[in-house]
Every structure is written in structure tokens, then in C-alpha cells.
Amino acid sequence: MALLPPIVSAFNTDRSSLTDCLNEANVPILISSSVGWSQAIQPFNLRFTPVPNVVVTPRNIHDVQSAVKCASQAKVKVSVKGGGHSYGAYGLAGVMIIDMVGFQDVTLDSTTQIARVGAGMRLGNMASKLFGLGGRALPHGTCPSVGVGGHATLGGFGIDSRMWGLLVDTVVKLDVVLADGTATTVSATSHPDLFWALRGAGPGFAVVTAFYFQTLPAPAVNINWMYTYNFTSAATAAAACQFATGWAQQHAPKELGFGIILAPGGVFAIQGVYYGPKATYQSIIAPLLEKMKGLHKGKSSASTVQQLGWIDSLTALAGAPLDTPPQGDNSHNTFYVKSLDTRESAPISLQALTSLFTYLFNTTPPSGSQWFINSYLYGGSGSKITSFPPSTDPASTSSYAGRDSGYVWQLYGYTGDTQPPFDAAIIGFVKGMVEALGAEVAGLPAYAAYVDTALAKEEAQVRYWGARVPRLKAIKAAVDPWAVLFNPQGF
Ligand SMILES: Cc1cc2nc3c(=O)[nH]c(=O)nc-3n(C[C@H](O)[C@H](O)[C@H](O)COP(=O)(O)OP(=O)(O)OC[C@H]3O[C@@H](n4cnc5c(N)ncnc54)[C@H](O)[C@@H]3O)c2cc1C
């Protein structure tokens, strides 16, 4: 990729020149005295209190171009805010923020079934709109207020992803503004290096203004299922965990989304969705339930098995309505997370699981805090995540790194009322979970969408993108030589 020419010959480092430039270009902005400022700079994770100088609220691509050029001239770092759900508040990390809230269009090409989705969309609103456009759907996470901007550039795992792939795998094209202010379209044939980088390591490579996704027909029949057990011994909980995760990896068809959820008090749930008839689901899951019942001393679990339509299935997974106000969404938490991406070929051993459950049973978490762990199957038989790219054509690969995942674990500690203040001891408690798993998980990859703010940048890059790091660095140097676009753990 050729180096881009400089867009200015002299840099002006005076920050007031930034707002002057934005005003001159007639770009809508918020500054600290503006009505709506505190809401505009509030991230989902209230552990962070970002302090940008200015928030730009572009109405169109032209405004984005002007804003990026002004920031480049003023030599300030730019971050893009989608839904504001980065675990590290990275959408609000720059001196100038480009808030994509004005980009809410969703249209569908009825011939190709490719949807063009504005980069300010939240997942719940996107799902509702797509379903309204002839029953179309995409794979993505369950939280309706997560933004498509950070989700479709870093991964985008949903319970349906073993069947359909990650959200990033459905991207066929992107409309972007480059760091020099140029607006362009990126695809396998136009800026292929950037297309590769934007699908897995995207934040910091360009400002995405719209995504083009290959949609799928929403399944008519969805079986949302969950079985909750209570274990009182670490050894039994570990045996259940090893059996359930191993069973799913071996026997779950790609239509069976599968995860485990662990919570205080010995709570051990297995949960997912089967995309197909209930009778088929019941025959698939029966051997697992039989074994789990045995481990649970013959006691039945609390169970929910519901046959639902697509939108009702997504709503039940979310535990909340899908529609989210694009501005002023008030869902928050105050938390720290670590993630572990285990190899399909190397499941966590019984010994390590026993050590984890011993820690969970015997360690008192910091006063007033809460925790949970979830682990979702990415691999297993026929998984579209691990069999991507669908062809050997190099243009179809992406920078998303977890193609040999077994399970992705998320270890999560938060304040009991979800509000600040955050006790830093929660970070130590969460790290203790990983330490309890021991040497066999040390150095495992992590999932870039589950930002681990405790990792130094270099370590984070290796954990998130592994062997792809040198190519990502080279692409960044080519498309953004002055590092105008900012992602704290990115390039
Ligand atoms: C409650 C909750 C549930 C979640 N559930 C899941 C899940 O089920 N599956 C899963 O895979 N992940 C899940 N995540 C993680 C989620 O995918 C990431 O946090 C994601 O990055 C959030 O995107 P955002 O746009 O809301 O966040 P933001 O903070 O706005 O953005 C995140 C990053 O993306 C960049 N970015 C945003 N928009 C653009 C754009 N238009 N152009 C360029 N860069 C952009 C930002 O600069 C920032 O670096 C969840 C997160 C939360 C908080």
C-alpha cells in the first residue's frame, strides 16, 4: 500500500485552533459548556471518566472528513465512538471524539440481500430493522445497546456464530474516511489491506461510516434453553465443567449455540439457543442433561426451554427490549474483565478447573463486589467461526485472530450496584481467577472486543492479534502515518 501524502505542510498544536477549524467547517460540536456534554462523554463502563476536548457529532460523511482534517491540522488524537461499550472506554479515549450517533440508516438491497448499516447503529435497533426488511438477520452479541461500530470491527460473537460466523465475517464492504480525510470504499478489491485490517483490528485504521453486511434469513424456530445447577464442591463443579464443555465441543452441531455461566453461590448454568425444531434439540441435548443430573446428585436443574420467533429469541437473550435510544442510553456497569481464548486442541485440564473452582469457592471477593464467568463455544463440529475464511482466496481472510478457538472465557468483576466507586481490589480478584487456572492458560490469546485494560499495549496486541501484529503495524503506517486515529491498545 502506497504511503498517503501529507494533507498539511505545517502542524498547529494550539488546541483552540481545533474548535476554530471545526466551526469554520460548520461541523456540529459539543464542548464542556454545551448542553448534553456530560452525557456525550459518559462510557458504558463507569470505571472510566474520559476527558476529551471536543465531541464532533457529524451529520454526514462530509462532516467526518472535515473533522478528521481539522484534527490532523491541530495534531490531536481522534477516537471514534460507536455505542460507547468498549470495556476500556476506548471510543472516548482521544482528544477529539467523532460520535457516530447521527449515522442510523439501515437499507437492504433486495437482490443481493446485503444491508448497508450506518456506523452509529446499536445492535438491538439493527436487528429489529433488519427483521422488518423481509425477515433478515445477522450474527452478533446479545446486548442490544452495544454499538455496531466497535462490534463489527473487532469480532462480534453471537450465540448463533457457530452457525453463521462472527459479525465481522459478514462484512463485504465498508464506507470509510481515512486519516487524511479522504472518503472511500473498502472491500476485497478496493484497499484490500485495509479491508483485512478493519475486520478484526479495526479501531484506529479508519473512521467507518457504514458497514455492508451479507444478511441471512432469520430462523423461524429458535429454542432458547438454560439449565441451572448448584454445586457445593469444587471437584464436582470442575468435573461438570470439563464434561459439559468437552461434550459440546464433540457433539454440538453448529446450530446449537452453547455456553456455561458461573456465578457466586456455586451457580453453574449451561445455556444457549438451538436453531431448529424442538424435538431435534431434545434428542441432541438429552445425553448431556443425563450426565449433568448424575453429577448433580440426581437432582433436576432449574430449567427454561422456550420455542420463540427470532425477535423474541433475541429479546429473551437480552433480558430487555431490543430497541435502544441511540442517544441517552442509560445502561451502565462499573467493571474489569479478563478474557481467555482456549485452543480447540487444548481444552483446560480437570486439574486447572479444580483449582479455579477451589478459588471461587474459597476466596471472598472484595466487599460489595460481584462477579461472573462465562465461556462460549467458538469451535466444535462445523463451526463457521473456526472454518472461516470460506475459501482459500487470501482476499477473504481477516485480521480477526481466533480461528482456532475452542472456548472464549470472560472473567468479569463489577461493583454490586453497577455504579462507581470501583474498588481496585476487584481487578486483583479477577486476575486471581486466571492465576488459579495456572500455567496452562498463561499466555493464551485474548479477545480484542473484551478489552483488558490491565495489559500493556504491546502485550495486548500480541494477545489479541498474535502473528498478525507486524502486518497490522505496516498497514497502519501506510494509512495513518501521523497516527491521527487513536486506539489505546491498537496501532
Ligand atoms: C454489556 C456488553 C455486552 C457485550 N456482549 C458481547 C457479545 O455478546 N459478543 C461480543 O463479541 N462482544 C460483546 N461485547 C463487547 C463489544 O463487542 C465491544 O465492547 C465493542 O467494541 C463495543 O462497541 P461500541 O461501538 O459499543 O463501543 P465504542 O466504545 O464506541 O467503540 C469500541 C472501539 O471501536 C472503535 N469504533 C467504534 N465505532 C467505530 C467506527 N465507526 N469506526 C472506527 N472505529 C470505531 C472505537 O474507537 C473503540 O476503539 C459486549 C460489551 C458489553 C459492554
UniProtKB/TrEMBL annotation:
PROSITE patterns: FAD_PCMH (PS51387), OX2_COVAL_FAD (PS00862). Belongs to the oxygen-dependent FAD-linked oxidoreductase family. The lineage of its organism: Eukaryota, Fungi, Dikarya, Ascomycota, Pezizomycotina. Coiled coil: none annotated. Its cofactor is FAD. Residues 48-218 form the FAD-binding PCMH-type domain. Signal peptide: none annotated. InterPro entries: BBE, FAD-bd_PCMH, FAD-bd_PCMH-like_sf, FAD-bd_PCMH_sub2, FAD-linked_Oxidoreductase, Oxid_FAD_bind_N, Oxy_OxRdtase_FAD_BS. Keywords: FAD, Flavoprotein, Oxidoreductase. It holds the Pfam family BBE. This is FAD-binding PCMH-type domain-containing protein.
